Amino acid sequence: MLSIFQEHGHRATEGGAAAAQHGAEAAGHAEHVPIIVQKINEWIGPTVFEIQSIIMPKIYKVFGFMFGEHWPGEGKTFEQYMAEGNLPIPTHVVMFLFVVLIAVGLLTFLRRKLSAESPTTRQQTLEVGVEAIRNLLSDLVGPGGMKHFPVVATFAVLILLSNLTGFLPDMVAPTANFNTTLALAITSFCYYNYIGIRENGLIGHLKHFTGPIWWIAWLMFPIEIVSNLARILSLSMRLFGNMFGEEQVSGAISNMVQWIVPVLIMPLGLLTALLQTFIFIVLSMVYLGEVTHHTEEHGEHAGSHSSDHAVVPAH
User: Fold this and answer.
1) Is residue 257 part of a domain?
2) What is the pTM of this model?
3) 69: buried, middle or exposed (CB in 10 Å: 19+, 13-18, 0-12)?
4) Fewer C-beta neighbours within 10 Å, C or N terminus of the chain?
């Protein structure tokens, strides 16, 4: 919903339906609209537009300072709305839903016929990714890090597949749109703060922002709050900037040289997709480690006690 609001809030109203905008619309860049997006808007776009016609004007009245004074579709028909270059269901929303369906289907296929005795090639492929994330959680979060595996692994799968979607014919990467990366960054931000509050309590979590020296806590607290809020922008802009930039560079090179050269630069795009996925989940795990550091300490103490007890019988 946040993505749809922002899409409408920053959309320019020039051009035809084929020039419907995607990605960094605030910057005024027109993007290619895949056929799947066009078809979905043709099939269910009128229904979505009717629903938006009821709720969006009211939302714009409340949040006009964010989205603008009037919703672009107010007082217009579906055909007029589309003719101005708007889409009831934005490109990045359709692309991300497509990625979710692909992720569900792919993981369902990979987990079929799991066996500890005779693992298949697809099982071993899945295990490589699982072990990599488990090791990172153990190193960056601590002994209790595995309880965050479902969330971190979900980030990894969705972001990686989103990044790779841009390699498919007539497709665009949803992570090349700032709305998508912002939603992912906000989700990560909310999750690690929720974990911090759940494990430390609200007061204990807020003490985390005061620093180790009590007499400068008044100075550290606002600085740490601003620093933590800046993580939303950092996570979202890093992922968006790299994926959007790679997509624009690849598109420009493909327009200039349509043979051989685009294929040669595909490994660079693949590296960017993998690297940006890795950076996002590693930073998310680092933030989790900051708010759950006491768990690691307890785990170490427990481990030292257990090892001490284990040594006694040995002697």
Assistant:
1) yes
2) 0.81
3) exposed
4) C
Q: Is the pLDDT of residue 164 over 70?
A: yes
Q: Look at residue 66 in the predicted model and tell me its pLDDT.
A: 77
**Residue the block writes with tokens 């979710």:** 100
Residue 103 included in any domain: no
pLDDT of residue 61: 87
**Among the three residues 89, 123, 142, which one is the final residue of a domain in this structure?**
89
Q: What is the pLDDT of residues 71-83, one digit of tens each?
A: 999 889 999 999 9
Residue holding tokens 């960094």?
Answer: 24
Residue 315 lies in a domain: no
Angle at 46 between CA 40 and CA 50, to 5 degrees: 135
* Contact indicator for 40, 213 with CB cutoff of 8 Å: no
Determine the structural domain holding residue 159 and report its residue range. Answer: 132-303
- Residue 301 above 80 pLDDT? no
- Residue 109 inside a domain? The answer is no
pLDDT at position 34: 93
> Three-state secondary structure along the chain?
CHHHHHHHHCCCCCCCHHHCCCCCHHHCCCCCCCHHHHHHHHHHHHHHHHHHHHHHHHHHHHCHHHHCCCCCCCCCCHHHHHHCCCCCCCHHHHHHHHHHHHHHHHHHHHCCCCCCCCCCHHHHHHHHHHHHHHHHHHHHCCHHHHHHHHHHHHHHHHHHHHHHHCCCCCCCCHHHCHHHHHHHHHHHHHHHHHHHHHHHHHHHHHHCCCCCCHHHHHHHHHHHHHHHHHHHHHHHHHHHHHHHHHHHHHHHHHHHCCCCHHHHCHHHHHHHHHHHHHHHHHHHHHHHHHHCHHHHHHHHHHHHHHHHHHHHHHC
Residues 141 and 290 in one domain: yes
Is a pLDDT exceeding 70 seen at residue 309? no
Per the structure, the count of domains in the chain is 2
Amino acid sitting at position 44: I
Per-residue pLDDT at 194: 96
